[in-house]
Amino acid sequence: MDQSQICPRFEQAISLLSQRWTGLIIYRLLSGPQRFCTLEAGIKGISGRVLSERLKDLEGRGIVKREVFPETPVRIEYSLSEKGHALEPVLRETEKWAQTWLEARS
């Protein structure tokens, strides 16, 4: 395919999803709202600083919602917006492809 024919929006989407950890964060949130510590524990190898940066970026792009519950102590949960949930078919198909074509790492 001629590079001049690639849609700029497609390039933006690939750039977003290819950022380290971003796809995994979205994938983890497909199962429902989660607290920061749950996300951090569920994504092997991610640092708290990077997770915080990625969540802020995804929130700024309207993909992730951050909800603060006025409790003591304060509870904060992250969830996918409608825009974020729209990525589910893409991630599920990527998961199916990986199960078929990639070898498991130890």
TrEMBL record:
The keyword Transferase does not apply. It holds the Pfam family HxlR. GO terms for molecular function: DNA binding. InterPro entries: HTH_HxlR, WH-like_DNA-bd_sf, WH_DNA-bd_sf. Keywords: DNA-binding, Transcription, Transcription regulation. Gene3D superfamilies: Winged helix-like DNA-binding domain superfamily/Winged helix DNA-binding domain. The keyword Transcription applies. Residues 7-106 form the HTH hxlR-type domain. It comes from the Bacteria. This is DNA-binding HxlR family transcriptional regulator.
